[in-house]
Amino acid sequence: MEIKKSEFVISAPLVSKCPTDDKPEYAFIGRSNVGKSSLINMLCNNKKLAKTSSTPGKTLLINHFIINNEWYIVDLPGYGFAKHSKSIKQRLEKMISSYILQREQLVNVFVLIDVRHEQQKIDREFIDWLGESNVPFTIVFTKSDKLGPGKARQNAQDWMNKLKDRWESLPPYFITSSEKKNGRDEVLDYIDGINKN
Ligand code: GTP
Ligand code: MG
């Protein structure tokens, strides 16, 4: 699939303020600074679409982008940013969980994981919660350019294998670099496959 058109629609503080049509949507979530906004821009070939920053905690609202006038990409705030105050963290957690559980148009959640790091408790808890809640999700490993391709593949494989202690069937996963545009076709084809079903 090619993305011919990508446009910002709305930044919403609540699920009730999100677009009201019934186009399918795909959300991108993960720890603060993992590269959600950068990945969205890479997929859309549009560096200015989602706001990125080297300072974690940039995205604080539910951001909708309309793609080819047919479906939405949703950029969510990161979870687990230590420097946010307790009240901001709680507000963001509530925003993210109510969006994921209530949003009927949500087709798939892409959970982003920095491929350089060991499995972190907060990511694992989030993924277990998605599984328990029967939310369809896919893992996207980010920043693979920071490792060699062999090492990135190995880390991703090890990371996925750790899920086997609890989950029998594992979700699909992709290895990406927004810097090098790696994994773009794979992620877009995956979305296309779902949209066509
Ligand atoms: P929050 O909105 O704060 O939760 O962050 P985010 O997950 O949207 O991350 P963002 O896309 O803003 O990127 C965070 C930092 O990581 C920026 O400095 C990016 O340039 C960098 N970054 C993102 N993706 C990649 C990548 O694939 N490779 C490299 N080398 N750097 C990346
Ligand atoms: Mg962001």
From TrEMBL:
Cofactor(s) of this protein: Mg(2+)
All residue ranges annotated as the EngB-type G domain in the record: 22-197
Family: Belongs to the TRAFAC class TrmE-Era-EngA-EngB-Septin-like GTPase superfamily. EngB GTPase family.
Function summary: Necessary for normal cell division and for the maintenance of normal septation.
Pfam families on file: MMR_HSR1
Keyword terms of this UniProt record: Cell cycle, Cell division, GTP-binding, Magnesium, Metal-binding, Nucleotide-binding, Septation
Chain's gene name: engB
PROSITE patterns per UniProt: G_ENGB
Species: Prevotella herbatica
Name this protein carries in UniProt: Probable GTP-binding protein EngB
Organism domain of life: Bacteria
